[in-house]
Amino acid sequence: MRIVVVGGGPVGQVVARRLANHDVTLFDRPVVKPAMSLVLSETTVTQLHALGISLQDGVELQSIHVSERAVPGSMVLSASELGLHAFGQVMCSHDLERAFQSHQPTPVDTRAVISVRARSRSQGPIVCLDDGTDVVADLVCLCDGGRSPLIDALGMAPQYRAFGRSAVLMRIEVTRPQAQRAFERFTATGPLALLPLGGARYGVVWSLAPEQADRVAAEPQILLNEIQSALGELLGTCTAITAPTVIPLIERWLDTPYRPGIAVFGNGAQTIHPVAGQGLNLALRGVSRVMEAIQDGSLADLDRCVQTGFDAWHRDRAQTRAASSLLEYAFAWNHPVRRFISGGLIASLDHHIGAKRWIAEAGMGRYA
Ligand SMILES: Cc1cc2nc3c(=O)[nH]c(=O)nc-3n(C[C@H](O)[C@H](O)[C@H](O)COP(=O)(O)OP(=O)(O)OC[C@H]3O[C@@H](n4cnc5c(N)ncnc54)[C@H](O)[C@@H]3O)c2cc1C
Questions:
Q1: At the top level of CATH, which class does the domain 1-368 belong to?
Q2: % of the chain exceeding 70 in pLDDT
Q3: What gap in Å lies between CA 244 and CA 214, rounded to an integer?
Q4: Fewest CB within a 10 Å sphere: which of 46, 165, 284, 287?
Q5: Residues contacting 243, CB < 8 A, separation 6+
Q6: Cα 10 to middle of ligand 1, angstroms
Q7: How many CB atoms lie within 10 A of CB 287?
Q8: For ligand 1, is residue 12 a contact (CB within 6 Å)?
Q9: Whose CA is nearest to atom 22 of ligand 1?
């Protein structure tokens, strides 16, 4: 089969490798992306290992501490207590890119893709390049991210839901690190995640109202003070090691992420709230479903196989999207009664191993 993959982010890289037994061309235009601390679930880590990608720079995630600011009690999800090897790995997105580049990389064609046409009766799908070349394929995998003009031009009409939130990203160092443990702290202003990057370093992802995010990002010392105040003495004293970055958050999805000869994966098919660290994990579970369906089918049956794969993933996507949005909305409501109830619920869940197992396995996509 002749395959064209548009976009060489993590999703496009995985798609190209999953289809490496076919004739694959990967187009990607070089852009500078912000460094993000990503939680890769154990399912994702296993998928990457199976593709020959080892994640030496990742930190194995052994426990997750969940708490509500200024409310006593917490819950600790511990991989060993739940009989799991690990919850996954925390990794900087730039290290993940490097891991893709250093393990038998798929050659990248840097010509810009300017439009894509779906399969017609007489021809396969066509990818048009900025130098005037047209490439005809059997399948075009669009993995070109969440702001894809190619998808818009195909008339695929994404749906949008504004969260009214922005993510503030930053790296800090702390004086009392806890090895291989992530922290999810529900603050009155929005969920704050601290992801272990090794040693005393943590990646901060804080979901805030846009005006507050812009204000604290403009004054890194204010941001640091607010992080310190949200964490209390949990990790000792915090120091900034990078400047903050602000990313506006929006939920965006395609109801049917395929057309004849075209399949859309990754942020192009859906972007979800990062509170549960699921965007890339969910996307790669979708890639797996579609790839499994393609392997089982024939070329003549390709479009039906793509549809079957997406149908098999649909429930996972709906549940993961809903859970991520619900976490944001529920915990962003700054009311003392809500905080008291959720703090109590978190503390009581700490004694319930069955519930903790369910939460951990849901996070790894095992119920999908
Ligand atoms: C704050 C934040 C925290 C997150 N944390 C997590 C987490 O902990 N765990 C998790 O699983 N997910 C997380 N995510 C989600 C995750 O980052 C995304 O799901 C993932 O990066 C999507 O990858 P992608 O390959 O679809 O898109 P991208 O990484 O955007 O890649 C798209 C690629 O396509 C290329 N491209 C675009 N247009 C063209 C064109 N016309 N021609 C050729 N190439 C083109 C671009 O240059 C780019 O390289 C987080 C997201 C945010 C915002």
A1: alpha beta
A2: 99
A3: 10
A4: 46
A5: 170, 220
A6: 7
A7: 26
A8: yes
A9: 267
The model's confidence at residue 367, banded by pLDDT at 50, 70 and 90, is low
d(CA 123, CA 125) in angstroms, rounded, equals 7
Structural tokens at position 221: 């010392």
13 CA: nearest ligand 1 atom: 25
Tokens encoding 320: 């993961």
Interatomic CA distance for residues 354 and 308, integer angstroms: 33
Measured CA to CA, the distance from residue 274 to residue 325 in angstroms comes to 9
Place of tokens 């979708």: 286
Q: What spacing in Å lies between the alpha carbon of 104 and ligand 1's midpoint? A: 21
Of ligand 1's listed atoms, the one at least distance from the Cα of 31 is: 47
How far apart are alpha carbons 2 and 137 in whole angstroms?
Answer: 5
Q: Give me the phi and psi of 68, to 5 degrees please.
A: -110, 130
Query: Is the C-beta atom of 36 inside 6 A of ligand 1?
Result: yes
- 3-class secondary-structure state, position 221: helix
Measured CA to CA, the distance from residue 265 to residue 263 in angstroms comes to 7
Domain map of the chain by residue range? 1-368
Mean pLDDT of 319-331: 84
Query: What local confidence, expressed as pLDDT, does residue 294 receive?
Result: 94
Q: Which two tokens stand for residue 163?
A: 């969260």
Indicate whether residue 257 lines ligand 1 (CB < 6 A): no
Q: Which of 120, 119, 115, 176 is nearest to 150 (CA)?
A: 115
Token pair recorded at residue 324? 């991520």
Give residues with Cβ within 8 angstroms of 41, minimum separation 6.
Answer: 87, 88, 277, 278, 281, 363, 364, 365
Q: Which helix (H) or strand (E) holds 258?
A: strand 258-259
Neighbours of 210 (CB within 10 A): 15
What local confidence, expressed as pLDDT, does residue 254 receive?
Answer: 96
